Amino acid sequence: MTYTLWIILTGCLVGLTCGVTGSLLVLRKMSMLADAISHTVLLGIVGAFFVSHSLNGLPMLIGAGIVGILTAFFVESLHSSGVQSDAAIGVVFTSLFALGVVLISFIGDQVHLDTKHALMGEIAFVPWDILEINGVSYGPIAVWMLGIVFIISIILIWIFYKQIKISTFDPQFAKLIGVPVVFIHYLLMTMVSLSTVAAFDSVGAILVVAMLIVPGATAYLLTDRFFILLCLSGVIGILSAIVGYTLAVYWNVSIAGAMACAAGIFFLFAFLFSPSNGLVVRKIKNLRYS
């Protein structure tokens, strides 16, 4: 595979993995929690480094997963104690992310991680971080991590499809029929955390947030069917990566930034021209019947 194709494949996997997982957050009206988790996983990554002295592989995923679950737990605990939901997210998000930033200073120059890298990332460097086993190259580590996390997410969604669907649209009814709503909630938070950290090192927090929220929000405007929404979110994430990379090359700008902007453009078109919810379409219908 060429250098360009590895970058496009990485972007597509970020869009696909985060798009599918993030669409569940959009349906549950928990989009800003994705923003919080995408930043607080920095604490998990730094913590994993202190334990394993490595920023690659399983320890980083475990550390991010733990912090992601803790983020959701702290937000839920504050909210149930009377703190407004948005305020609870803001307090937990800033506190844990700031703690991660502070701990980075103790790492010093031992690794390539810093706050600029954490926020922006650099997808152009992905093809150089290769997985090698016994001298044989198997492609970028980021591609393997994203691919494995995507497969895990799809398997979990397939296994708990009915439980996720019922608890998303009617959590009270789900409790009555015995669906483990709390377990499904934290399972989803774990999936979001794993998706975030798999993409975090290569593309940074900004593109992760965009791909977790925007494709799902766009698909929400285009369909009312749960399964189609999941699929459409992944497709929009992939298209955003491809279009974004094309724009970035044409204008010689940030690749991750262009991909996030492309996702925003798709949302704008859906917001204006969606057959059922589009602003322009509604205006035309109102003029027709007035």
- Indicate the low-confidence ranges by residue numbers: none
Mean pLDDT: 87
- Structural shape: globular
H/E element string? HHHHHEEHHHHHHH
Rg to the nearest angstrom?
A: 19 Å
Q: Number of DSSP helices? A: 12
Strand arrangement, major sheet: 1-2
Helix-and-strand structural type: mainly alpha
**Major sheet description:** 2 strands, antiparallel
What is the count of structural domains? 1
The named CATH superfamily: ABC transporter involved in vitamin B12 uptake, BtuC
Helix fraction?
over 70%
How much beta, percentage-wise?
Answer: under 5%
Please outline the helices and strands:
Elements lengths: L2 H25 L3 H22 L5 H23 L4 H23 L7 H6 L9 E4 L2 E5 H19 L1 H9 L1 H6 L4 H42 L3 H26 L3 H19 L5 H11 L1
Antiparallel strand pairs: 1-2
Helix pairs in contact: 1-6, 1-9, 1-10, 2-3, 2-4, 2-9, 3-4, 3-9, 6-9, 9-10, 9-11, 10-11
A few lines on this structure:
It is a multi-pass membrane protein. The chain has 290 residues and is mostly helical.
